[in-house]
Amino acid sequence: MKLSQQRSRQTRDQIIAAARDLFARQGYEPTSIDQIAAAAKVAKSSVFAHFGDKANLLAALGLSQIEALAEAGRQGDASDPAQPLEVRVLALLSPWLAYFCREPAFAGLYLSQSGIARGPHTDEFMRLCFELEDQTARIFETGLDGCTPDQARLFARGVQALFHEAIVYEISDWLKQSQTPPRSSEAVLTDFLAVWIAGARRQTGS
Predict the structure, then answer these.
(1) d(C-alpha 183, C-alpha 170), whole Å
(2) Fewest C-beta in 10 Å: which of 9, 42, 54, 122?
(3) Which CATH architecture best describes the domain 53-204?
(4) Which residues contact 39 (CB under 8 A, 6 or more apart)?
(5) Is 147 exposed, middle or buried (0-12, 13-18, 19+ CB in 10 A)?
(6) 2-10 long-range CB contacts below 8 Å, 24 or more apart?
(7) pLDDT in tens, 154-175
(8) Residue 160 CB contacts under 8 Å (≥ 6 apart), including other chains
(9) Domains of the chain, residue spans
(10) Does domain 1-51 have CATH number 1.10.10.60?
(11) Is it true that 1-51 and 53-204 share their CATH fold?
(12) In terms of pTM, does the model score above 0.90?
């Protein structure tokens, strides 16, 4: 590896490490590019050169975990078709939900898909998130007798909307605390899915 490439990689690693630390300690929104550059001991222009903006930097931090979730879905979306559809869909979504509940900054990135700045890291982040819809559609297509690809896509999009609502429920602490006792986001998602999948079965006559 050339010296210039080594320096570039070292600079990138310093920025990543500084951003991860600052986001963890003070949150994503309050953290500025200036603070990240200062903590990484690099010029502000270097942060922009490597990542473009703060959203792309955040996406870069989460790509390895999101890729792992997507890969788990690729391996598991052909799971035992004898399992109830609700079980298969929830098994696919639960690890994603747990991740986004644990990492609210990434949840915000996921929820603001149409509004985030385009860039190599955000584009890859969104591609992997959109793959979740594809995996959900395959479960419907294989799990509901007579379900067409178009119907499977519609059902999967509905599931994604419900998944978004479960994330919002989790990160809106005041909403969660309004429940007595507070319910888990997975319990909320489970209830949503039960209603939606019952409707899908009626639509397909399954």
Answers:
(1) 9
(2) 9
(3) Orthogonal Bundle (1.10)
(4) 18, 21, 22
(5) buried
(6) 8/50
(7) 999 999 999 999 999 988 877 7
(8) 132, 133, 136
(9) 1-51, 53-204
(10) yes
(11) no
(12) no
